[in-house]
Design the sequence.
């Protein structure tokens, strides 16, 4: 088994084995670009590492040894050699890009001997000892988990002692002294000397990268981005080049196009006399890439050519890292660049116009989840005009954010449960990832457009203003000061990630629309996809909104929310406390005209698009009060005694309401409820048909069916009622009766149920609960333990569990079609708006997905991507 | 399609089509026995009747017409003919015997003209008008649902007017007058004349029998006896013979062996000058069948010969009905006789000894559910000796019953929820069926050994004392008087169904044992069966008891019940309120020795039989108090504030505890619980091995697994703990780790889970709840509606749902074996003791079923029956 590959042995098609970074380094090597050579330890070696109980097996370490030899041959340098020492960087590189999630070690191979001879050889002792102290610091932090901060304290102390401000002001002797102090601190922390042997350093570093695959922030990132824990990471060992060898050296990052806007123009930053971490960490403020044309014109031209070549080669916008060592350009990395949603759309539309990509190509290049940013509210223009910005930073990730400010990730996570929050940080670090995810927006005082905060926020689609130097953040007192004003935790601010402007107080927001590049792109998605996209909407407003976002029908109208309105809750309650059918009917008759009105509004909003309406689903006790005083008040209103009402409420109490008297079970006990709802639907359809001349085809959906006999019984109530009304009206009205498949038994007996049901809509929320046997309301108590122990990698309520729940969906689809080949199949759980779940639905052969209005464009794109995958022979089920 | 068969066209193999009664009438006809001829309208006609919306289709009524013609040809009589009129009986007859559940009409064909001419022809006007009035009464009751009681009032009034006591004292003229009054009453009730046309009478009667298939008592009976509603009933139309034509006529019922004891001796009763209903209804007290030898010796000899012939032919004990008309014997019915469990066993053992049947044959002849009677307590002999019977009745169904007395079926049903009840009735009627089912015993003041109460009680395995004339029952005042004492509803009595004795007060009871015929029979079952039978037992006592009943191991030891003991609940609660692992461990360490002691006791009781122990399963809040004062008391005991304890309890509150933080989810959050339980199990096994020299192989079962990663994690905790203890002990101990399959996802991903699990035990209680999506605790609220609307026919918690839940079981078995061919598969839900579910498990290829101790013999027999079915090529899955 081959566990190690030279860069020259790989190519960009080997991402699964070499990781993204390794595969691209190999590809660049093949393209003849200036890449410092090295080798990649494969993801399979990472898997072996975990299988073997977190050790590197002898056969793997032997291969690493062998490849060090090869690399020494290629570079003409030797590990630990005093004459011509080989230094390497060690970097993680997973199959999917996980920026900042795992660890990097630079300058590996240094020890006292090597440092001394390098100082002599390069004539640049300052650079050598600066590199050495960085190495010790990174090795301690990454490999030994000894905090970097302890080392930083020594630097701060030394600078104070020397009376200087910048690291660069420290002399060679200062740095030598620091190396000594660092080694002492290491020994103190570890109880052993800093390892001088480069091969020992390397093996430990590789193990540390493997371990970092399972650090908490990597686990969280994977959960958020649907990356399986089983993939593992590769490790890239690359010979070092130095951007910190003086003023003819430097390092930078750049994109072939603007990642915020999509504009076709080289975009990026560099720092002279610095190592890569200085740029990414956002500690010094770098120069724009344009300025490199002034600083080093030949290097700039060479870099521009390489950038163009890479974009043409990969047919996608590239995100590149480079280093200039004494005037020579080296490429350290290229990858498809992360970008904002508007940039992604502009790049996609432009690349088709440029003839670089086909429509199908670009459909695959936009992450559906990212569209979310475009679909969320922006500031209300008038309110925005009236608002005065108090400060401005870099427009790092577009969109409007407004909320209460918090200064730690932990607080942001907690408070986000009580409404929108903004996370305010000096600068973010990978530890902040959960807080960033919970926040509506992120504001940092330091860092550039490629700082951690900016990169991660763009990836998440969360708005971000970065490097806003005008604000002073105190994490200790949990406050910020800006323009002489102090804001405490919980105060309101608003930030605009598209302009970089920052406001005190709340600014109202407005809905997004689909226009321009977005509209063009979505029209291509619609051309390609075969899966239909409907929406879940309970009101005419929601319905109209969803139509604007491209909804082709309603997959789920919940009727219960309608009963909570002030004018309806009383008759609803009268219905519930009724002791017999006659009294129940009196109350239901009061609800009839209101409910009919609701449906008329929805039918009008949807026109001839199909509308699925679900009969009453929740247990009746949800409609009754629980508090003593509310019960007393309601009893007076209902004209019964409080004691009688209390008895009713007690009788309705359930041990497990999720599995109680709800769904079609209500219609079995009280057929008159189904009857009145049917009456409201059919009468509304007839009225709207008459008024508009449109053909309305209502789809009546029976919830929670588990047995064909339930379906048969409730369908009987519906058809008897509907047919009588239609016959009396003397006009034609076609309606359909179907069911939710949300109980495992319904899926298992779908062949039987399809005898009665004209359509199935998979209610994957409940189906997930029943299949997993846990209640969504209660699972919060233990799911964190599950993530911590890596038992689950993603939330099955957010991403459809394809192995378990998906098996039931496929089974039901198959059985349903066996009985009724033209049965219409859809999904109306919240999974309907999750891209990976949409892909699943496409391959499972469903007819449509239904999701909340603002996820409709996401589902449309995901459906198109699934279709392109299918046409290209990929995307098989169960592979994810 | 042929819907009607002459008796001569059928045979005993056609039960599905002709019903049991029809098939046996056909068989007796073929055997040349004296059977009044007739025809059978098939069960398929019944199905058509319901399909067509409760009407008899023209093609069916045409066939009925045609067969009336055939019957007229055979008998030489004609429907409605004044010279030689044909009278018929109309009786229901389903595939399975449902005694008293459906309706019968005798003397059909009578009208004024026919009656007058018959009176002249027979010279017995009294008999004719008696028959006529009976016919009007039955037709009104059965066909028109006009109560029989209204008619009885007219008889009572007439008797009073005439100053007579017995019906037989009424004269011909009296009866003629009664016929007139009856017809007037009919017209008053129905608004139309009593139908004079015999064909109209017949069609209405047939429809009434079809309708009676779905009367409430028939539905209840079917649910209790697993008879599908889809079967329908056949209708037998048979030419009448009359047992009420004078003192040379009579009617009776008899068994070829004693149905109470199994003794090989003709057993039965007859009444001279009576119709069949008089015997069955128990209104007049009949003579023993022996006495027929004195009354009509030739008829007795002929009958004895026929009885012997039938038993040899059917190779089973027969239950026969006969009528003697003017000295001529007619056979009206034969069927395999219902019998008590001791009788069933004696008959089985005897018939093998007689060479009449093989062991396999008799295995199929005993209903496993019936063994229940033998396994329930009997009176404690000493207490019984000391007790003085206050009265005695017929020993109608054996076993001891003790409880509070109630006088209506409704009250008995309600009160049975609060402890054992006895149902006391003047005489029972089919309407009492649910009350009889709920009661521990049944006591009637009237009726014989073949009265309704006796037949039904024997079928149910409930003890019954019938015809206890010494007690006077008043349903109005809800009391009884016996020997001068009056007992009110709720007072205690005890009855002995084996001796007929009745006691005031409570008599303690003792457990049953397996000896004699029972033991012989069970040894045959054990020889034949391949499915193993284990028990669910949580204590050494239960375990020892189950071993006596033949348990081959323990399939489920629940550990949670152990923690409710007075000395354990406090440390358990300390464990629950602990805020960190260290405090939790302190409490757990207190529980360790107690739990170890429990397991030592169980291992000793079971010897080398396998013992499966399940780790803690219920949500922790079940161990904490809910009431204000209990919380305060516990807080003092725990040394914390009541407020703190309340917060803990509130935090543990769950919306759906069934789907909450329980099962292996507890072990994921608190691995130390699994660790301590493992320690207790392994240490106990080591101790018992050392002490006894036996080889103990504990099976540790992880509950509620839904994902292989849960299994892997908890198994890791178990094996790490166990292996350390075993290594330290330095002896050999083999243990197994497996899981419950009780969550649908576990079944769906059983191939994955089997990678880690060495055995699966299907927890069909929870699996049924999750698969159906309803909570057993809450389903009571709507299941009655489901039965009423015929959506469900049986309780899925009592009888395994083979279509839905069964599909998951089969799937999991298949997937599990694919991964691990030698995986051990069992079932430990309550279904493990239900015969039809045991049969399912046999055919699904499980290794064992596990059930409560007193159901072990039932499961052993059911397993043997399944094996015999299989050997005989029947019993395919999903057929039931």
Sequence:
């Amino acid at each position: 088994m081959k566990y190690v590959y030279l860069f020259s042995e790989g190519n960009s098609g080997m991402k699964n084995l070499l990781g993204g970074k390794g595969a691209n380094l190999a590809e660049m090597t093949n393209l003849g670009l200036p890449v410092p050579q090295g080798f990649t330890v494969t993801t399979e070696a990472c898997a072996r590492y975990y299988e073997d109980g977190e050790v590197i097996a002898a056969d793997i370490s032997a291969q690493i040894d062998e490849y060090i030899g090869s690399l020494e041959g290629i570079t003409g340098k030797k590990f630990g050699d005093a004459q011509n020492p080989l230094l390497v960087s060690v970097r993680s590189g997973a199959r999917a890009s996980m920026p900042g999630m795992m660890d990097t070690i630079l300058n590996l191979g240094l020890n006292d001997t090597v440092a001394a001879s390098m100082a002599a050889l390069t004539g640049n002792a300052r650079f050598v000892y600066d590199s050495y102290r960085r190495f010790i610091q990174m090795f301690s932090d990454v490999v030994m988990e000894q905090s970097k901060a302890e080392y930083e304290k020594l630097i701060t102390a030394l600078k104070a002692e020397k009376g200087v401000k910048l690291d660069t002001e420290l002399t060679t002797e200062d740095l030598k002294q620091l190396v000594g102090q660092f080694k002492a601190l290491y020994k103190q922390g570890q109880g052993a000397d800093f390892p001088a042997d480069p091969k020992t350093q390397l093996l430990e570093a590789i193990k540390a990268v493997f371990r970092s695959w399972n650090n908490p922030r990597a686990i969280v990132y994977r959960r958020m981005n649907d990356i399986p824990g089983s993939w593992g990471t590769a490790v890239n060992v690359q010979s070092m080049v130095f951007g910190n060898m003086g003023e003819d050296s430097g390092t930078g990052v750049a994109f072939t196009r603007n990642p915020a806007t999509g504009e076709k123009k080289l975009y990026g930053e560099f720092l002279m006399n610095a190592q890569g971490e200085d740029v990414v960490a956002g500690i010094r403020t770098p120069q724009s890439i344009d300025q490199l044309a002034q600083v080093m014109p030949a290097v700039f031209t060479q870099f521009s050519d390489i950038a163009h070549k890479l974009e043409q080669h990969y047919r996608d916008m590239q995100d590149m890292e480079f280093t200039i060592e004494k005037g020579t350009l080296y490429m350290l990395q290229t990858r498809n660049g992360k970008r904002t949603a508007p940039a992604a759309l502009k790049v996609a539309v432009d690349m088709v116009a440029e003839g670089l990509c086909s429509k199908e190509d670009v459909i695959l290049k936009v992450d559906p989840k990212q569209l979310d940013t475009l679909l969320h509210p922006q500031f209300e223009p008038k309110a925005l005009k009236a608002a005065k910005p108090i400060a401005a930073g870099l427009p790092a990730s577009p969109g409007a954010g407004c909320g209460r400010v918090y200064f730690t990730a932990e607080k942001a996570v907690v408070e986000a449960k009580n409404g929108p929050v903004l996370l305010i940080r000096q600068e973010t670090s990978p530890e902040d990832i959960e807080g960033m995810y919970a926040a509506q927006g992120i504001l940092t005082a330091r860092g550039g457009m490629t700082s951690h905060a900016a990169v991660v926020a763009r990836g998440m689609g969360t708005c971000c203003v970065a490097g806003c130097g005008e604000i002073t953040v105190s994490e200790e007192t949990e406050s910020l000061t800006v323009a002489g004003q102090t804001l405490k935790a919980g105060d309101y601010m608003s930030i605009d990630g598209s302009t970089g402007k920052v406001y005190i107080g709340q600014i109202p927001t407005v809905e997004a629309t689909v226009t321009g590049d977005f509209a063009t792109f979505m029209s291509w998605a619609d051309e390609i996809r075969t899966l239909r996209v409907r929406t879940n909407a309970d009101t005419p407003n929601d319905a109209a909104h969803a139509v604007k976002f491209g909804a082709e029908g309603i997959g789920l109208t919940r009727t219960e929310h309608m009963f909570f309105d002030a004018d309806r809750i009383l008759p609803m309650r009268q219905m519930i406390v009724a002791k017999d059918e006659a009294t129940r009917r009196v109350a239901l008759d009061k609800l009839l005209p209101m409910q009919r009105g609701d449906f008329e509004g929805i039918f009008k909003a949807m026109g001839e698009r199909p509308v699925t309406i679900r009969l009453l689903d929740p247990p009746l006790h949800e409609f009754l009060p629980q508090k003593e005083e509310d019960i007393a008040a309601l009893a007076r209103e209902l004209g019964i005694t409080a004691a009688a009402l209390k008895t009713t409420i007690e009788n309705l109490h359930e041990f497990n309401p999720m599995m109680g008297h709800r769904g079609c079970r209500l219609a079995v006990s009280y057929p008159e409820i189904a009857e009145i709802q049917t009456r409201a639907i059919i009468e509304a359809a007839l009225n709207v048909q008459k008024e508009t001349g449109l053909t309305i085809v209502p789809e009546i959906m029976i919830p929670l069916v588990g047995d064909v006999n339930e379906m048969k019984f409730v369908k009987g109530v519906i058809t008897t009622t509907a047919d009588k009304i239609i016959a009396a009206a003397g006009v034609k009205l076609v309606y359909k009766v179907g069911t939710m498949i949300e109980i495992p038994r319904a899926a298992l007996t779908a062949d039987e149920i399809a005898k009665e049901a004209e359509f199935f809509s998979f209610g994957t929320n409940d189906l997930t609960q029943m299949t997993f046997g846990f209640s969504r309301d209660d699972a919060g108590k233990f799911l964190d333990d599950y993530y911590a122990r890596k038992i689950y990698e993603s939330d099955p309520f957010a991403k459809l569990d394809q192995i378990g729940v998906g098996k039931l969906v496929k089974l039901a689809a198959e059985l349903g079609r066996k009985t009724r080949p033209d049965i219409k199949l859809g999904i109306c759980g919240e999974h309907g708006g999750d891209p990976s779940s949409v892909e699943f639905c496409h391959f499972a052969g469903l007819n449509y997905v239904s999701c909340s209005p603002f996820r409709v464009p996401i589902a449309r794109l995901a459906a198109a991507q699934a279709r392109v995958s299918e046409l290209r022979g990929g995307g098989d089920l169960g592979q994810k």
User: Anything to note?
Assistant: Residues 876-880 of chain B have pLDDT under 50 and may be disordered. Chain B has 35 helices and 31 strands. The two ends of chain B are 25 Å apart (CA to CA).
